Amino acid sequence: MLTKQAALDRAQSLVENAIKAGADAADAVYICDGSTDVQVRLGLLEEVSRSESEDIGLRVFAGQKSATISSSYMNPDILAGLITRAIDMAREAPDDPYAGLAPQNMLMTGDLPDIDSDDGEDPSPATLRQCALACEDAARAVAGVTGSEGAGATAGRSIFALATSHGFAAANSASGYSIYASLLAGEGDHKERDYDYRTARYHGDLPDPQGVGALAAERAVGRLNPVTVKSGAMPILFDPRVGGSLVGHLLGAISGSAVTRRTSFLLESLNEQLFDNAISIIDDPLRRRGLSSRAFDGEGLPTSRRAIIDKGLLTGWMMDSASARQLSLAPTGHASRGTGGAPGVSASNVHLEGSDITPLQLMNDVKNGIYITELSGQGVNPVTGDYSRGASGFLIENGEITLAVSEFTIAGNLKDMFRRMRAANDLEFTRSINVPTLRVDGMMVAGA
């Protein structure tokens, strides 16, 4: 894999050659990555795989016209042809009044902030194998486990470099590690499965593999002998591993593209109180060792910590430069970029700040409700906010989690769900979107 400087040199060279060839403006993205994945099953090594890739993408402008082209071949002759084709394509493209590079006066300057995203380690396949075996061994030792879909450990590294023709050039490297396991419990037609995984930027930040495996197994055993649930309106509690999806729907609705296309259920909600004033949702791209940290965005703008929801209030949209121009606003440093196509929009490390009450206190007054541990299906309408998904989890009876339940649907409207949402105090930073246990009252359940 290249060094950060070598990756940046490739992006800069492509931009410089595009300008020499006649482009009015240009930017280039270079991405390379490599990863090793070791999988075991039933105590035996099942697969060791290694993948490596590198891609480069060029966007050129001819006035208000633009085109993007990408390649995984780095031969100079091939890249020269890439530039020529991109410029020819741009000249034939329709005018776009909102197209263009990011505002030059907003580009990031100076040293990059230290997001501490690369530990420089390179664990051997043997080390990863030991980790995967320890994970599965601990899982298979849990009473009630009857089978395994496998366990694994991965290690990887990536480099992202961005260069523009109006003065930005920077690169960042990131390491990534994970442990995962999927276990079976029960026999015959009454088997249940569940899983657990952990991901970290630093290898030393991963939890013990035995703990990951044991939790996956305990979850599978806990799902045995599910009962049916009666239909009706009731309080729903979302486990942290599924509750983050609710915040994900919020992020999609406040993206610049959804707002400009008028496909968001939150179009008329800017600066409105969407949540209880006890809830704030933070986007923090500069979190050290964060899974989605970034020192600059996909257009070369600086990133910064921001309260997307501030004490219940929606503070603004997430915008790249094109959507910001269309809305007559300023870009927010949320541009995301691959090697193909124009920039999109994405959040970084997002968390919903918890309260001072425990999950048990949050459900203490629930006489009849459900604790959701898994969601399925894609029944969410981003235009209206209507929400309907399959689910499984556990009954809550008189403030306590009791029997497993499955094969039911929960439904509501996201705006109503946001208004009724309450949070516990068990927030942990283990994902890109992190939430504590969440409670939403009055959701409709369709069961037996």
Helix residue percentage: 10-25%
Tell me, rounded to a whole number, the average pLDDT: 96
Q: Report how far the terminal alpha carbons are from each other.
A: 55 Å
Unreliable spans are none
State the major sheet: 6 strands, antiparallel
Order of helices and strands: HEEEHHEEEHEHHEEEHEEEHEEEHEEE
Number of helices: 9
List the helices and strands and how they pair.
Blueprint: H1 4-20, E1 25-41, E2 44-62, E3 65-71, H2 76-92, H3 125-140, E4 145-164, E5 169-185, E6 192-200, H4 209-222, E7 232-238, H5 240-253, H6 256-260, E8 281-283, E9 306-310, E10 313-314, H7 321-326, E11 335-336, E12 344-345, E13 350-352, H8 359-362, E14 368-376, E15 386-397, E16 400-413, H9 414-420, E17 421-423, E18 433-434, E19 438-446
Parallel strand pairs: 7-14, 13-18
Antiparallel strand pairs: 1-2, 1-4, 2-3, 4-5, 5-6, 7-19, 8-9, 8-13, 9-10, 11-12, 14-15, 15-16, 16-19, 17-19
Describe the protein in words.
This protein is an alpha+beta fold and 448 residues long. The chain contains 9 helices and 19 strands. It has helices at residues 4-20, 76-92, 125-140, 209-222, 240-253, 256-260, 321-326, 359-362, 414-420; strands at residues 25-41, 44-62, 65-71, 145-164, 169-185, 192-200, 232-238, 281-283, 306-310, 313-314, 335-336, 344-345, 350-352, 368-376, 386-397, 400-413, 421-423, 433-434, 438-446. Strand 5 (169-185) and strand 6 (192-200) form a beta hairpin. The longest helix is centred in the N-terminal third of the chain and has 17 residues, at 4-20.
